[in-house]
Amino acid sequence: MTDKSELLRQLRIDREDRPAHTAPSRRWWWLAGLLVLLIAIAAGLFFGLHAAVPAVQAVVARPVATGAGPESGTSILDASGYVVARRQATVSAKITGKLDQLFIEEGVHVKEGDIVAKLDDRNATAALLQAKAAVTQAEGTLAQAMSAAADIAPIYERDRKMAAAGVISTTALEQSKANYDEKQTDVTVEQGNLAVRRAALEVAQRDLDDTIVRAPFTGVVTSKNAQPGEIVSPLSAGGGFTRSGICTLVDMDSLEVEVDVSENFISRVQAGEDATLKLNAYPDWAIPAYVIAVVPTADRSKATVKVRVGFKSRDPRILPEMGARVSFLSRPQKGANGAASAGSVTLPLNAVQASDGAAMGVVYVLHDDTVERREVKLGVRSADAQTVIAGLSAGERVAVGDFTKLSDGAHVKVVDR
Q: Which of 277, 308, 329 is the last residue before a domain boundary?
């Protein structure tokens, strides 16, 4: 029995006989695990918070280059069109005839009244000679009638006195008076005949004059439509081989530009305001211009309104039918001292939040690591830039990024491009 008890005592595990370092080692493992967990939570919070801050890029608002004069404005709208002449004419003869001589070529400058061409005048000259002969004949006939009337006047006067004295009968006096009246009527008839002949002479003279074609105004010949030997007519008489015009004449002082402006932007254009245009042939040449008029009708097929733009100065390089691009300028804003303020700036398209055709837009101005939501007034929009004409100053930094993640006062992270 004693042996069994001793054997059981030997097999029992005595907890008090554990090594002294066992309990502290387990506690250190618990502390290490807790520390690792805290570090993981802190890292998650740190990266989570930083991941929630939107990343943006910064762009600088750059001033718009304006003209040298104080009246210069900034472009608020661009439109394309063509140079047209308000005064041009197809010069033709007033009568039908064969073109005999031509005195012009394309590009020739002519003055009002200069001879452009001559028609074959042989028939007109013959008609004029015939009319002159008829006038001469009528003048002779009138002279003869007047002479006869003058001869019979004293005879009638004598017969009237003799009848009063009872020398001749009343019947003889009546016959003398009839002869006298007949001669006076002959004079009246011949005077009318002479007037008709003289009118016919005037017509024949005009027909001869009409064989000479003159320039109706000062201008430049832009096209020559007929050659000597061809039949020309103002009414295209004689079929398809008859020319209705001899040349086209353009008054270069009447050149202007016609552009089509979208209905969405027509409210920005007003008559009398300044503009700048560039010809496609001379893209680096800025030509001062002004708005002549906004044509008061719209083209519903294109949803546009036609605008007439005039040149402030003339230049021989400006030719009809040239393509042109017009920049309509805003009125310069006046500062406190009365001087014009050049407040317009340009930004990339992705820096402005705006719908197509809108006059106002939204930008987010950077202040260190926060943004300010600001409404701005928009100007012209090009293929890669947007002009801001009010609400933003040159040099201010604007955020470019996901606008859905930006709000007024939001924190952002500025990254390099």
A: 329
